[in-house]
Amino acid sequence: MTRGTILIVDDEEKLRLLLKRIILLEGFKVLEAGSLGAALKLLEKESIDVVLCDVKLPDGNGVAFTKTAKEKFPFVEIILLTAFGNIPDGVDAIKNGAFNYITKGDDNARIIPLLNQAVEKKQLKDRIQQLEQQVGNRYNFDNILGSSPLLKEAIGLARIVAPNSTTVLLLGETGTGKEVFAQAIHQASKRARQAFVALNCSSFSKELLESEIFGYKAGAFTNAVRDKKGLMEEADNGTLFLDEIGEMPIDLQSKLLRVLETSEYIKLGDTKTTRVDVRIIAATNRDLKKDAEEGKFREDLFYRLNVYTITLPALRDRKKDIPELAKFFVKLFSEKINVRESEMSKEFIDKLQQHSWKGNIRELKNAIERAVIVANGMELDVIHLPSELRETHSRQGILSAFDLSSVEKLHIQRVLIHTNHNKAEAARLLNIGLATLYRKIEDYQLR
What we know:
The chain has three domains: 5-134, 3-Layer(aba) Sandwich (Rossmann fold); 140-313, P-loop containing nucleotide triphosphate hydrolases (Rossmann fold, 3-Layer(aba) Sandwich), CATH 3.40.50; 316-443, Orthogonal Bundle (Helicase, Ruva Protein, domain 3), CATH 1.10.8. 49% of the residues lie in helices and 13% in strands. It is built from 20 helices and 16 strands. The chain has helices spanning 13-25, 36-45, 62-72, 87-95, 111-138, 149-161, 178-187, 206-214, 231-234, 250-262, 288-293, 299-305, 322-337, 346-354, 360-375, 387-390, 395-401, 404-418, 423-430, 434-443, and strands at residues 5-9, 29-33, 50-54, 56-57, 60-61, 77-82, 100-103, 168-171, 196-200, 215-216, 228-229, 239-243, 264-265, 274-275, 279-284, 309-311. The strands form five sheets. Strands 2-1-3-6-7 form a five-stranded parallel β-sheet, sandwiched between helices. A five-stranded parallel β-sheet has the order 9-12-15-8-16. Strands 4-5 form a two-stranded antiparallel sheet. Helix 1 links the parallel strand 1 (5-9) and strand 2 (29-33).
């Protein structure tokens, strides 16, 4: 495996050959071009990490070429070689995006170390871009599972507001996926390449919350030995997601209101303002309008946050989405614990759809994780659910609980789990022949 691909651009064939031999010995793949036009064609066709380019070529100047190449291929690093180095050219080369500018002969010993550094920088950029794409693919609207009308309406509203920098207020019960929505809005905005910073306002005391959001100057209070950047500053040019905004103390709310109105605030212990360009997405499971009317939340802040409101539906209001969500979590946790992805029995799905899900998607996720662990690759059935979900209050559920085949199926599952799927031991404990056990496993589709 090569360490990277280097393109040598020089009209002197002997020099190209010499450089090629040296660079090949270092484990790099080497391509050659005798002109800037040929170099651009290779950049379009090949995956190149670093261009090692002469400054003076028959069809142009390497310094100007650097600007053109960096505009088209921003991640490619360019090292310029010149026979007669001069300061103005060197300055222009760096301004145009060159990694370095060196003189032939005088700086030959620097070529390989510089190539190593440039390749590392290029490959780091590639990795960062790859990670950003993975995050973007994970947090986009197409990956929000479900097709119920209420969810589609929420997604539609979020798609409309995402490209703007408008403040958004997400309403919904705990566990409905407010942070997932906030991430999707951020990824669909012009700020997607900047930071997304999330904070739960209920997790900190008033003093800690203020320092976390706004930061402080050294000496602002005991133990403040150095300056601290707050999350507001960390999210500059990006998005700050404030979850459980209803839990923010009243006196801090005024500071947040000032940011929303002026894009300015004063850190603890500071005497001058800090300016930021931050999009605020807030979320709460409280009735902020009622809280504002009762004096528990600043009315002016409520109306400033309430510019664009999206209400996320509770899971009990979108039960048709439960099988799709359950299947996703089964796949997720099967991969996590390295077991075969289990099928879900009809009874299992029915039981999921009968439950009230007060904890919403978060509760469903936890229930599926437990079921996957207990089933250990077998078909998921009611027995694998937590006891509070197994309790059935419908008449249909009571009748099925006394059905002989259902009882036998659940009992065999319990014994298989107990023996860690050792079928010979399970048959012994059940006091049946091994062939009979295999037949029942097949009949009941116990995998």
